[in-house]
Amino acid sequence: MAKLLHIQTSPRGSRSASQAVAEHFIDSYRNTHRGDTVETLNVWQAQFPELDGAIIDAKYAIAHGQPHSPEQVHAWKAVARVADHFKSADKYIVSLPMWNFGIPYKLKHYIDLLVQPGLTFGFTPGGRLQGTGYRQTARGNLCARRRIRSRFRRRNRRPTEHLISNKSWASSGSLTSGKFLSSRRSAIQMPGKKPSPLPIAKRWN
Length: 205
Prior knowledge:
Blueprint: E1 3-8, H1 17-32, E2 37-42, H2 53-63, H3 70-87, E3 91-95, H4 105-114, E4 121-123, E5 129-131, E6 137-141, H5 143-155, E7 163-165, H6 166-169, E8 179-181, E9 187-189
Parallel strand pairs: 1-2, 1-3, 3-6
Antiparallel strand pairs: 4-5, 7-8, 8-9
Helix pairs in contact: 2-3
């Protein structure tokens, strides 16, 4: 029996397209893997430790082969609990929106906690980097990005070279009127006004 960990990274809940795709996959997965268990980790609801000075100092103490102070021991235990929970799964699916052409900051926080020496990676005697102690399979979905790429592929265009209507693209509400112009410099095109060369907080769900 295997454990599938679904990592939810959108705060939009039932309105999230990436989460809907993941849930559809999980429904099919349950039908074909009846002996497996599925656990959901919502990075917006999880109580992750902050990456403060004590955790960073503990990390570098390990890297330099130095013992931990009592404060560092306590801080590192919190990180180890997060990593141990992650490693307890056999398979992963990440429902991942795209924010400002990147990932949500809560997922970045989670990844920064996981990627730690001695917990998820180590070094061989020859100094080569290697993963430690587990073999897992991961799947991910970024349905908004796939939709964007497929639409421009059909038109033989690049998203960074043409005008995009916010009506069908800015689904998470950062823009409510006008159009989004993506070129070498982003700009907002409002009715009756010239484009303003300001960066845009562009999000897909």
